[in-house]
Amino acid sequence: MLYSNKILTLEESNTLAISALAQSLKKEGKEIINLSTGEPDFDTPQAIKESAIKAINEGFSKYTAVSGIAELKSAICQKLLRDNSLSYSPSEIIVSNGAKHSLFNAFGAVLNAGDEVLIPSPYWVSYPEIAKYNQATPIFLPTTQENNFKITPQQLKNALTPHTKLLILNSPSNPTGSLYSKEELEALGEVLRGSNVWVISDEIYEKLTYSEGFTSLASLSDDLLSRTITINGLSKSTAMTGWRMGYLASKDKTLIKAIDNLQGNSTSNINSFTQMASITALSPALEREIAMMREKFRERRDFAYSQCSSIQGLSLNLPDGAFYLFINIQEAKRFGGDSMSFCKALLEEQGVALVPGVAFGVDGYVRMSFATSLEVLKRGFEKIAKFLE
Ligand SMILES: Cc1ncc(COP(=O)(O)O)c(C=O)c1O
């Protein structure tokens, strides 16, 4: 065998077929309304950029500690205490190249071949792939629109086996936008009490919540604090997707040391001037700008939801967080709920790009990003309505 078995288990994302088609239609000169991207359309706030420029000009361009400079880890600890009622010390933090890298490190540090990873479905595309790369088995916990795409304590209980190693929670969720309440998280936490199951809490959309407050899983009890690996980053909160900054926090010293070793033998530290910029991004002074972006997202969510609800054949829940609508297309004419055919035809006939639900493990739904202007959203909905006429 020329190639590693592990690498051959990784699958190409279902979203690639749609982006390739969108690109080729654009080349032909067709107007494309792209509602498929998972990143804020805002520019990175000026104060953050200036910190990076200052760091470069001052020659802050050498290797740093693998897990990040002390000042940054201390800024992360202050943020976790301020926003999430979580008390961590800098030695319990690892800064990585985006939340995705933090997830990759965390999976790699806890999984052995044959372990089971519980993944609520629909799920963010990379969770099952990273589990498989670590020779673990993804076990999907299907959720329903009626239950607002959330797993129940009973469902979690039924899924536990002696092989269960890890549960992934992503609230607010990509792709559904659903947000677990404090009580719902507590009830899930109770099921795990007494077990050896780790939880990864992917909190990357924390700053984009529109209704009840956001709760960090690890803040709910000492038991949850000890078993939870909290993951967050700056991509979505401060419009920094391209900077590549994410971090994880854990109380487990062995885990932190293992991840430090893994990162120390692969990517080492994230780039030095992004670290300086991240200190600014995490400071309380940025909260006003973050709130302004959140209000824009809320306005777009409300607009997109009302537009979408008025189109015959589509149904959806109002998302409580993130910047996606997860739209039920099962009653739409022509496609019988086949999300890939729906997205291909919508792109070819009307030039609107959405992501098929199959990419997230469920057919019969499509994901629309509302991280774009009201004008673009309006035009997109006009075209979708025409498509379904
Ligand atoms: C649920 C979820 N987790 C993690 C990530 C990764 O974000 P980052 O840019 O920090 O790697 C994304 C990005 O789309 C996401 O949607």
TrEMBL record:
GO terms for biological process: amino acid metabolic process. Residues 31-384 form the Aminotransferase class I/classII large domain. It is an enzyme of class 2 (transferase). The keyword Transferase applies. Its cofactor is pyridoxal 5'-phosphate. Keywords: Aminotransferase, Pyridoxal phosphate, Transferase. CDD domains: AAT_like (cd00609). SUPFAM superfamilies: PLP-dependent transferases. GO terms for molecular function: pyridoxal phosphate binding; transaminase activity. Its EC number is 2.6.1.-. PANTHER family: ASPARTATE AMINOTRANSFERASE. Belongs to the class-I pyridoxal-phosphate-dependent aminotransferase family. This is Aminotransferase.
